[in-house]
Amino acid sequence: MSTNVFAAWQLDNQNSDLSFTSIKKTHIAENHHFKKLHGQIDAQGQLQLEIDLSSVESMIPIRNQRMQSMLFNVTNFPSGKISANVSDQLSSLKNGTQIIKGVNASLELHGHKQNIRMDLVVNKHNTQLHIAPLRAILINSTSYGLTSGIEALRKIAGLDTIATTVPVTFSLTFNEKP
Hints:
The protein is an alpha+beta fold. It is built from 3 helices and 12 strands. It has helices at residues 61-71, 87-91, 147-157; strands spanning 9-11, 17-24, 28-34, 37-41, 46-52, 56-57, 79-85, 98-109, 112-125, 128-133, 137-140, 165-176. It has an 8-stranded antiparallel β-barrel with strand order 1-4-5-7-8-9-10-12.
């Protein structure tokens, strides 16, 4: 199997994670994640990641259902999509090394698309790439039309507050395609 830096790579869903932290009642933080991610990096270094929003996991089944219907509206918006060109990160990456480089990405969520900037930590080990942000990415619900969904969740749960900006982090493992 070739280990060309411009090889194509397939996301390993079982060894990957995308999570976010919600904050309610001013100071109670809870972690959530998505169980189903699909993605690849093509031979030109274009990363595509699709998040199955119906796979949100909060560890509370009724809350999962409410987030799916009231927040994400998975009937109309079943997935979130992230794309970025990571060819600069891959071009200088040697086996067994790690680099940190800034990347411009786009996030499409709930019918809205925004550009985001993030610093990525990229590791290469034989036929695997590991990509994670250097620090959490802050996502503001207003930018993606999610504020009314957060308000609906706040009301149905009888809460005083739910934060409208959430930190998001991920740990993605890609296997080189044969």
